[in-house]
Specification:
Elements: E1 2-6, E2 14-17, E3 27-37, H1 39-46, E4 56-57, E5 61-69, E6 81-84, E7 87-88, H2 94-97, E8 108-109, E9 121-125, E10 129-131, H3 138-158, E11 165-169, H4 173-184, E12 189-194, H5 197-205, E13 209-212, H6 218-225, E14 231-236, H7 241-249, E15 251-259, H8 271-275, E16 281-284, H9 293-301, E17 313-315, H10 319-330, E18 338-340
Parallel strand pairs: 11-12, 11-14, 12-13, 14-15, 15-16, 17-18
Antiparallel strand pairs: 1-2, 1-4, 3-5, 3-9, 3-18, 5-6, 6-10, 7-8
Helix pairs in contact: 1-10, 3-4
C-alpha cells in the first residue's frame, strides 16, 4: 500500500510502498477515506515534538471504512463507517481504567509513535474505533478526531460555565471548533484572536467577536471589549510564547488559561499581577479522551458544531501536496484545515 512517511527529521515526507498492516484478534483494519493535516504533524516533521521510531507514517486525524476485523471484535463490522481515536491503549492500566487513557503506560499515538493515516490503510485496536454516522462526511469525521476533540477537551478542562466569556487565541481548525463548542456550552461572548482576516471573518460567522492582532494589541482589545474585566477562559491554540503570555494577561478574576499549542520555548508570567492577584490559573491540556467522542459526534449530528467551512481544502495522498501544507503550517499560515482524501 502507499504511505507518506517521515523518514528523517527536518526533511520532507516521502511516499513509500509498504505492506498492508496485519490484523490481530482485537484489531480493526480501516481503509482511509480522510486524514486531516494537523499543526502537530509539522512539529513532528521539524523535530519540535519528537516522533518515532522512523520511518513513520504521520496522520492522527483519520476516518474511513472498516475493511477487516479480528476474531474477537464485536463493536464494528466490515463496511462500517468509522473514525479513529488517536491512541492505541492497553485498556487495563490505572489511567485507562479511570478514563484518562492519554497517560496509558503502553499508549501509542498514531502518526507519532505508530503508523498513522497518511496511507491507504491503518490498523487500530477495536476499542479505539468509533462509529461515524452517515450524515457526517469522512472529512468532518477526520477533523473531529483532533482539532474538534482537543478543543472540546480543553473547554471541559477550563470548567467553562454558562454566562462566562472566552478568548480563543488562534482560529484555525481547533479555534473554529472551540468557538462553536464554547457557544454550545453557554459562553456569553467569545473573542477570536488571529492575524488572518479571512479566518477572522469565518470566526465572526460562527458568532465570535474578531480581534485582529495585527491591527491592535490583543490583550488591550480584549480588555476594551470586555469593559476592563478580562475573560473567564482563554484558550491558547497556537503554540507561541507571545500568545501564551497574552492568554494569561487577558484573564479576569478567577480566570483560567488553558494551553494547548505546542512549543519548545518557555514564556514569562507576571506571577502576582497575572495569577496570584486574580487567583487565576494556568491549565495544561493534553489532547482528548475517548469517552468525549460520542457526545462530540452528536454535537455535529445535531448541528451544534458545523465543520462544513472548517475543511477548506482536500488534497490527494501525495508527498509534494502534503509537504506543501505542512510548510504553510510551519509559518502559522495555510488553510483552516486541509484534509487528505486517498
Amino acid at each position: 500500500m502507499k504511505a507518506v512517511r517521515l523518514v528523517e527529521v527536518g526533511r520532507p515526507l516521502e511516499m513509500q510502498e509498504i505492506p498492508r498492516p496485519a490484523v490481530g484478534d482485537k484489531d480493526v483494519l480501516v481503509r482511509v477515506k480522510a486524514a486531516g493535516i494537523c499543526h502537530s504533524d509539522a512539529h513532528y516533521r521539524a523535530g519540535t515534538s519528537p516522533a518515532g521510531p522512523l520511518p513513520l507514517t504521520l496522520g492522527h486525524e483519520v476516518a474511513g471504512v472498516v475493511e477487516e476485523v479480528g476474531a474477537q471484535v464485536t463493536n464494528v463490522a466490515v463496511g462500517d463507517r468509522v473514525c479513529l481515536h488517536y491512541l492505541a491503549t492497553c485498556g487495563d492500566c490505572y489511567y485507562c481504567s479511570t478514563g484518562n487513557e492519554q497517560f496509558c503506560v503502553e499508549g501509542a499515538m498514531i502518526g507519532k509513535h505508530r503508523d498513522g493515516g497518511y496511507a491507504e490503510y491503518i490498523v487500530m485496536p477495536a476499542r479505539s474505533v468509533v462509529p461515524l454516522p452517515a450524515e457526517i462526511s469522512f472529512e468532518a469525521g477526520a477533523v473531529l478526531m483532533c482539532s474538534s476533540a482537543t478543543s472540546f477537551h480543553a473547554l471541559r478542562k477550563s470548567r467553562l460555565r454558562p454566562g462566562e466569556t472566552v478568548a480563543v487565541f488562534g482560529v484555525g481548525g481547533l479555534g473554529m471548533s472551540a468557538i462553536q463548542i464554547a457557544r454550545a456550552f453557554g459562553a456569553l461572548e467569545v473573542y477570536a484572536v488571529d492575524v488572518n482576516e479571512s479566518k477572522l471573518r469565518l470566526a465572526e460567522r460562527y458568532g465570535a467577536i474578531p480581534v485582529n492582532a495585527l491591527k491592535a494589541d490583543a490583550v488591550d482589545e480584549i480588555l476594551r471589549l470586555s469593559g476592563g474585566k478580562g475573560v473567564d477562559v482563554a484558550l491558547e491554540l497556537i503554540g507561541l510564547p507571545q500568545t501564551m503570555e497574552q492568554a494569561v494577561q487577558s484573564l479576569g478574576v478567577f480566570g483560567r488559561a488553558v494551553l494547548v499549542g505546542i512549543t519548545d520555548k518557555p514564556f514569562e508570567v507576571d506571577s502576582y499581577r497575572g495569577l496570584l492577584g486574580k487567583e487565576a490559573e494556568i491549565i495544561g491540556c493534553s489532547d482528548h479522551l475517548l469517552q468525549e467522542l460520542p457526545l462530540l459526534i452528536e454535537f455535529v449530528r445535531r448541528g451544534k458544531l458545523d465543520l462544513s467551512d472548517v475543511v477548506t481544502r482536500t488534497i490527494p495522498l501525495e508527498a509534494e501536496a502534503i509537504n506543501s501544507a505542512l510548510d504553510a503550517l510551519e509559518q502559522f499560515g495555510g488553510e483552516v484545515r486541509t484534509v487528505i482524501t486517498p
